[in-house]
Amino acid sequence: MAAQNLVFFFIFLSVFSGEQRGVEGLGMGEKKLFVFGDSYADTGNNRIALASSWKFPYGITFPGKPAGRFSDGRVSTDFIAGYMGMKTPIPYRWRKQLAGRVKYGLNFAYGGTGVFDTAAPYPNMTTQIGFLQQLINDSVYTKRDLETSLAFVSASGNDYANYIAMNGSTAGFPTFISSVVSQLAVNMRRMHGLGVEKIAVGSLPPLGCLPLNTARSSFRQCDRAQNALVDLHNQLLLRAVANLNNQTNSASFFILDFHGAFWTVLNRTHPHQGNPSFENPLQPCCMGVSAAFSCASVDENGDKKYTLCSNPKSKFFWDTLHPTQEGWRAVSSTPAFQNSLRQLFQN
């Protein structure tokens, strides 16, 4: 193991040794959580030398230093694991170093990836499922393990960002959205075929409200055209999940309502039942000093090329794409999200 990787391994070990179970845990016993997808779910799979998630100021809230999450702290995976009353599953890349933790499941998500190949140099969702397949073949997980497990699937827009980057516009988007959702359904059907008891896929958040897209309005207004395309994705996803349950004669496939949860929090003007309202919710805490830079950017002398808010807890978004830990906490506490979690575990 290279010296740099060794240093980060000990950081990582301290992070996972210090994790606690969620206060809302259901005490799910021997259940395991398997996570697939992108940066909204990734807890450290991306390579240290490449990913901003391993650079300051990422991780300043939890664990207090960069540790691979695309936020100042915890992300969606952590809150879902907490709801289940279990420890956050470790990233796939650390499975050998932290072999004792694979009993809780594994996180196969890589920031920047999609259902299909994207510009990111990391495995797409089909390949991530292949990693689980290999672990089953190697008897790391048994049939019983899979029958009492949950798969969480995060597909939060990288395919669409890559499509725009490659084509320069949203022309032909409806057809491409249909292909993305169709492949998502193929992937979920494959997970079920491997023996995973329940598969929960997140609906697409309102991408038009990401700071990347609201910057042109000084973070005051969401992009309605992009949100209309998000609505199409979610309509098709709802239909696909219903079809999967019909085809398998089961109640194995569910949608976690990220869209409704994000929308609720972003439009909250006053604190609600202990949950905060956020100061200018469309404006991120950490952002580059110009369009050429991003959060964590530094120049050749190591000088910062980004600005950082004084209190990440006051912001919903951490950077131009990802929520803060407090943002994820608010999302996971909304009635929309809580109701979809209850439905998942009541069936």
TrEMBL record:
What InterPro entries does the annotation carry? GDSL, SGNH_hydro_sf
- Where does the signal peptide begin and end? 1-25
Q: Which Pfam families match?
A: Lipase_GDSL
Keyword Protease attached = no
Any one GO MF annotation of this record:
hydrolase activity, acting on ester bonds
- Family label: Belongs to the 'GDSL' lipolytic enzyme family.
Q: What protein name applies here?
A: GDSL esterase/lipase
